[in-house]
Each structure stands twice: as structure tokens, then as C-alpha cells.
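Quick one, C-alpha cells below:
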């Protein structure tokens, strides 16, 4: 997430099971789930995949598992793999690192379960659902505002890839049946946006949030976050959650100031097959 203020081939015994959209690879006391990420692949211009689960039993050797994973990536011409693990999965993280995955960041999942005590914002900010006519201006903010996203932190990747991905996220969300793009304005001047999802349990998830670069560092972030929380409270939301990079210290401080709690950290790893080893 952006800072609200800038001040900032296969071995024996391997079984391959396929489910809808996900491939499960199991071998010699280890298992992982992997899948292609069409949206990121379209943004980057080459196949991108994700690993959503890795398990390595105590004493197990993950070589066969990871060799099978190599074959799966080769079959799909995968050029980049992203994986997130709970911070306590040290055995699994060491297996990945031994295979050429590289640590990128820690991420945290701030969550607010009570809207009591949210102060009135100092700045008056109008929040409304964005329309297709707002797309270009919001995409411009998304392209320029982010500094700590995982693809930006991975110096092996061109920054342009991440910037293009964020802008494409806005365009996609404007037509998504699940996500809503909200624009934030002060005196008709666009200062930021939120991409939000209202879930069946009445919780709200903030997928992407940003303050326009020229408005950063002026206290607008706190007012906008307060405005959003008061809006969600009025709409009957039960809680708000999001995900932020541990590198984003201004955002970490903002969420703590607003009373969010922080779940245990997750480790982000990237693997570029051509740079293995």
C-alpha cells in the first residue's frame, strides 16, 4: 500500500493434483499450491505465478517437490513467482531460499474491529464512487504514488512494471463486481482514492489506497482515513482490514494511531527462474 504521507525433472514419489485454477504438488513430505496470475501476467507482459501454500515436514528434503515445481514453471514459461509465508514458517522459507527465492519484504494486516473513538477529520474531504470518466486521473495517481510495493522493492524488476500494474488495477476495479473505486476530493480537486470491497459478513477490505503525490506530507492522509472510517461506520460495516508493507513506516504509524491492531507478519519472496542460484 502507498504511504498516506510520503514522509516519507521430477523425483520419485511425486504426485500432481489439479484443482480449479490451482495446481497442488506433493512429494516426499512436502506440498505446495501454485497458480498462474493472469492479471499480473497481462500487466507485466510475461507469465507470472504465485505460490499460496508451502508445507515441508520436519526432517523432509524438499528437492523432489521443488524440482516438480521447476517443471511446472517451465511448462507455463513462468518468469516470476511470488510467495507469502507466515513469519513462523522458517523451515519452508529456508527451503525456498535454498532454491533461489529471495526475501523481499514483511507485510502486516492491520484490522479495526471498533469504530468508536474515530475523531472528526480536520480537512473536509468528499468521498464518492468513481466513474469511468475519473479513470485517467485516478490511474495517474496510482502510477506515481507508490514507493513500497513488493514489485518496486525487488530491484531486479523494472519499476515501470509495478507502476503499470497499479494503474491497471484501477481500470480493472472500475468494472469489477466485487470492488469499488472511491475518489476523494477537496474543493473538487482529486486528492486520493480507495479501492474497497464490502464482504458478506459486512467487513470492509481496503485493496489499494493512495494520496496524490502533490498532496502528500500535508496531513491529508489522516483526514482521509478518518473520513473513510466514519463512512464505513455509517454504512453499517463491522470491521476494516487491509495489508501494508513493513517498509511503509508512515502507514504503519497511521494505522496504529487510528487504533488498528496488527496480525502476525508474513514474509514475501520472489523467484525469477532465469536468475536461479
Amino acid at each position: 500500500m502507498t504511504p498516506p504521507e510520503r514522509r516519507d525433472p521430477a523425483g520419485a514419489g511425486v504426485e500432481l493434483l489439479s484443482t480449479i485454477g490451482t495446481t497442488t504438488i506433493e512429494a516426499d513430505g512436502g506440498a505446495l499450491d501454485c497458480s498462474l496470475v493472469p492479471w499480473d501476467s497481462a500487466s507485466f507482459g510475461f507469465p507470472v505465478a504465485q505460490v499460496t501454500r508451502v508445507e515441508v515436514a520436519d526432517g523432509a528434503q524438499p528437492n523432489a517437490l521443488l524440482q516438480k515445481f521447476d517443471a511446472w514453471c517451465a511448462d507455463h514459461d513462468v518468469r516470476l513467482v511470488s510467495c507469502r509465508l507466515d513469519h513462523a514458517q522458517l523451515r519452508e522459507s529456508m527451503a525456498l531460499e535454498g532454491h533461489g527465492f529471495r526475501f523481499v519484504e514483511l507485510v502486516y494486516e492491520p484490522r479495526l474491529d471498533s469504530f468508536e473513538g474515530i475523531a472528526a477529520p480536520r480537512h473536509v474531504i468528499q468521498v464518492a464512487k468513481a466513474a469511468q470518466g475519473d479513470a485517467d486521473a485516478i490511474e495517474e495517481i496510482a502510477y506515481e504514488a507508490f514507493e513500497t510495493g513488493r514489485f518496486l522493492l525487488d530491484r531486479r524488476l523494472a519499476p515501470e512494471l509495478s507502476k503499470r500494474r497499479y494503474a491497471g488495477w484501477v481500470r480493472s476495479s472500475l468494472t469489477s463486481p466485487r470492488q469499488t473505486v472511491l475518489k476523494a476530493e477537496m474543493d473538487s480537486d482529486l486528492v486520493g482514492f480507495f479501492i474497497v470491497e464490502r464482504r458478506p459478513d459486512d467487513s470492509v477490505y481496503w485493496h489499494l489506497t493512495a494520496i496524490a503525490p502533490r498532496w502528500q506530507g500535508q496531513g491529508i492522509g489522516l483526514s482521509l482515513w478518518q473520513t473513510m472510517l466514519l463512512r464505513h461506520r455509517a454504512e453499517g460495516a463491522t470491521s476494516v482490514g487491509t495489508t501494508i508493507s513493513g517498509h511503509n513506516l508512515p502507514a504503519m504509524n497511521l494505522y496504529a494511531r487510528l487504533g488498528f491492531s496488527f496480525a502476525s507478519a508474513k514474509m514475501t519472496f520472489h523467484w525469477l527462474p532465469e536468475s536461479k542460484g
